[in-house]
Sequence to fold (463 residues):
Amino acid sequence: MEPIIHVPADAARIIDRLEQAGYEAYVVGGCVRDSVLGREPEDWDITTSASPEQVKAIFPRTIDTGIEHGTVTVMDHHVGYEVTTYRVDGEYRDGRHPSSVTFTRSLKEDLLRRDFTINAMAYNPKSGLVDLYDGMGDLARGCIRCVGVPKERFSEDALRILRALRFASQLGFSIEEETLCAMKELAPRLEAVSAERVRVELVKLLGGKCPEMMITAYEIGVTDVILQEWNAMITEVQDNPHHLYDVGRHTVKTLRALHNEPEYLAADAHERAIYDMTMLLHDSGKPLCRTIEADGFAHYRGHAIHSAEIAKKVLRRLKFDNETIALVTLLVRWHDCRFDIKKDISFDNSMRRIVSRVGRDNMRYLFPIMRADIEGQHPAYREHGLARVARMQEEYEVILREGHCVAVRDLAVTGRDLIELGYKPGPALGEALEKLLQIVLDDPAANNAETLAKQAKAWLDEA
Fold:
């Protein structure tokens, strides 16, 4: 049965006005796919037989967003709708963009240039669905398949290789065999794709239903080009009682577990990217620090430090913003922090110190990451590990509730106060504040101005 797609009123009005002017018009691509799947489309793109100039003549408010490729944004009630003329792409000389486009009056020719069958469907509220390449069948089968000849589609635009993996992950679909073979053959062409575009597709893949597509990416040579660090992870077998999987497959397990954490489910897209990139790279340093010790098992002492260094390098290469790089690197560095739940005497002291290092606000990211990491390890250690994290989170909440000092800015004295005691601005002043912080981390009750000023003055007199 043909689906009924509820096109937004503004988009339907644009289609209607184009038809009244004598042209064809349809919503097309991802919005049709997502509507059929019962998902909320992010955008409603429109394709039409009208030329860009004819579109501009019909609508009073337009923006030339990509007019050289036939795209005009029509503004309606302060919302923009991309309206693109039916087109046939010319030769893809750079493996990413057509060197020219030719406008056509044929919807069939326009749909033929698109990447996958599930993205090559069009819908008109009056005439219904246009599905020339069995996109509906592939949706029903849960299959990613190229429109036409796969090698041609990927030769035109190598980014489509990553898009295939991303859609498979997001939708929980498999990739059709001929399409997958073409992806493997043409994976080296990803060298021509910009880091920014790789980043976008990678983040979407990691956040999907099936992060296992990272394993497929390795198997077909994609990570040879975009993430060689992953190759080292997936070939690192963890000969250790705490683990059942190589580092790569352990990481996939942790990503799946992370996506069920309440904090992740409540996060926005940017925060989810922070979670996912942290999880992807949290053990990336293990291949660098493997040792076989007296017990005969592999150990990875200091792997979090190595992982943080790798994370910073990868994130910079993928052109993440500096704030994200700093936060992900920090979380990777401290993802494996632990204190034995039996050591009750020192536990609160230890937790204040880790909150001081990670940051009061950043700690909220760390707990779901730690729980997910445990879920990807041997089940025999799960209960103990989760109990440890729960105890840490309880102590963290006490620190928040009681307002414990965990940063220099929380001290009852300021740098100005120490200057009034006789300190000069400079390194010695900073060192004194840090030493006062260590005192307060040991004993929160010591955070009063009189006690701290007295101690700071004593250090100054001793100098």
Summary: The chain has four domains: 9-141, 142-226, 227-401, 408-462. The two ends are 86 Å apart (CA to CA). The chain has a mean pLDDT of 93.
